[in-house]
Design brief:
The chain is α/β, with parallel strands linked by helices. It contains 10 helices and 10 strands. It is elongated and about 55 Å long.
Length: 268
Amino acid sequence: MTLSMNRRMFAGSIAAGLGAAMLTTAAPFAAADTLSDIKKKSEINVGLLVDFPPYGTTNAQNQPDGYDADVARLLGKDLGVKVNLVPVTGPNRIPYLLTGKVDVLVASLAITPERAKQVTFSKPYSAATIVLYGSKKANIKGAQDLKNYRIGVARASTQDVAVTQMAPQGTEIRRFDDDASGMQALISGQVDAIGCSTTVAAQIAKRVPANTFEQKFVLKQQEMAVALRPADNDLLRAVNDFVVKNTGNGELNKLYHKWLESDLPKML
């Protein structure tokens, strides 16, 4: 056997060994069964926003609360497991899910084609109307008027995507870390209008004199769903069953009415 052949055989054995190691490492991930893991440890880690009232907020004890928190607790009750509520932000919520820091997201995550490339969505459990909300002095009647004003949005949010797509070239779009920061920017006059949910707009209206701000136009009607990792098929079925069951029996409507004082919108 020549030296060249020895080298080729050695290289081949190394490659085979690496390939086997990669398969051994990848196989548990590919075959991961999050639902079984949740049942085994008898708890589920749920990521949710705490800066998007009333969907996600904190209570007097500084603990996560709101519509999403109640939905997460109801999901845990249906699964028969303890619920650990994990605060996330708009930008980091999907990374938290994909890196295993949480098992699912009940984090006011709107269903979009872009996000569907990263996560799997359940059937929608909530919906919200996103609007452009701003000073009554600002003459904004449509997207064409945005270029004359300073527009604020929460970074990586649905309203960020909507405003960015429709705003004329040259529009000054200011991006903030969360809705609370955008809200404060509008109230303090740093921006003339913000993209936000009607719920956030209602919160702003309570903090300022009457007729200070107004809804300019609707940006988007969005449906929100529980987000899961793509391979979690058993967990997806369980979550979909949960949504269908609790939509049908009125439990989700009760929670929605509790926090938003209106009926749960009709969803697909």
